[in-house]
Amino acid sequence: MELSSNTPLKVFVITTGNEERVNRIQNYLKGIDFEFVYSDSYDDLLKLEKEYESYSHKFRQKAIMAGEIGCFKTHSQAWELIVASGTPAIVIEDNIEFIGEASRLLADDVLAYIQSCGLVNFTNFCYILDPEKPFKISDVKEKKPFPTVCYGITPLRARDLLSSMKKTAYAVPIDKWLSIPKLSGCYGYISPIVVAKREDNLTSIANKRKGKKTFNPLNMIQRVINKVKYDY
Length: 232
Prior knowledge:
Oligomer: single chain
Mean pLDDT: 93
Number of domains: 1
Strand order of the largest sheet: 2-1-3-7-5-8-6
Helix content: 25-40%
Number of strands: 9
Radius of gyration: 17 Å
Structural class: alpha/beta
Largest sheet: 7 strands, mixed
Shape: globular
Strand content: 5-15%
Low-confidence stretches: none
């Protein structure tokens, strides 16, 4: 493994600010240029939950929840920082567990995949279509979500995602949204380089409680329409 001969990739860490998780990340990323991106307060997210409940019911039976909105929103804040920086970056979540050294993310081949794919995942993924090169997650017939624990992204692709958010933000949780090209506006790729996985004993900031279900027949009709329109 050769460390990048270019400007080292910066890492943005999605977090609620939980002290234990912050300390874990600081230990993991010693010597690496990184920045925490903090989620909004849960009270503020509860307001957004009410705002987007009806909209999200048109895409799935269970409404999007405050924690899921917080996760989505915090990732988008990281994308804004990446657009402003003008350089590719890595985004990780604070419930990450590295497989080996975190410095693996600074290697030339990682940067090369980010530059060629635009949005590419470095998380352990069980549904491997090609062990030698990146493949589109939307090609996985099991319709699996895009793992948001550890991925690389270019400023151009971050800008594309922010643009798509103006139309379809919070329709579904971010991992599902990133796996559906007609919602996110781009392809997400799975890399053959596996750097991390989700820590088994730590939940995502999205997993606080279950969303309210709708049994409204009009919502059911709209979901069918949207499933055809957005192909998910």
